[in-house]
Design brief:
The protein has strands at about 10, 20-30, 30-35, 40-45, 55, 60-70, 70-75, 85-90, 95-100, 115-125, 125-135. The protein contains no helices and 11 strands. It has one domain: Immunoglobulin-like.
């Protein structure tokens, strides 16, 4: 892995939205971190339909990018080789994909400095984002 991300899939419950069968959101534990501090984040995918929906599972099935001023600073790239499959996500259920950004840049020439960063992440071709602020150490 390019970043010190760790992944854990957990099934649970979250808030309901009726916009489309699957709703994705990305969250962090807090809104302000120190420069270089690890940032745990969670991608949640909830089935808000009245029937089970097929979702992707395995390796290389989600994306995560940290950007500043519209420029990618850190990009998650899974180099794991395993079977990617489809599985049913039951009605009303949520799966959580937990990642950990190590707080370092992965893109050539990118620098981590204090300021506002956007975390964009997604699964099953659905993206969501959240904003964090990095402060000086």
């Amino acid at each position: 892995m390019s970043l010190a991300f760790s992944m854990l899939l957990v099934l649970g419950l979250a808030t309901q939205s009726l916009a489309q069968p699957l709703v994705v959101k990305v969250t962090t534990r807090k809104h302000v971190y120190r420069v270089g501090q690890p940032v745990p984040l969670t991608i949640s995918e909830r089935n808000v339909s009245t029937h089970a929906v097929e979702v992707t599972s395995g390796c290389q099935f989600f994306d995560a990018t940290i950007s500043r001023d519209g420029v990618a600073i850190a990009v998650f790239r899974s180099h794991l080789m395993c079977l990617t499959t489809r599985m049913p996500l039951p009605t009303g259920r949520t799966r959580h994909i937990r990642l950990r950004w190590n707080g370092r840049a992965t893109e050539p020439g990118a620098e981590i400095v204090p300021g506002e960063y956007v975390i964009t992440a997604g699964v099953d071709q659905l993206l969501a984002s959240t904003t964090i602020r990095l402060r000086a150490e």
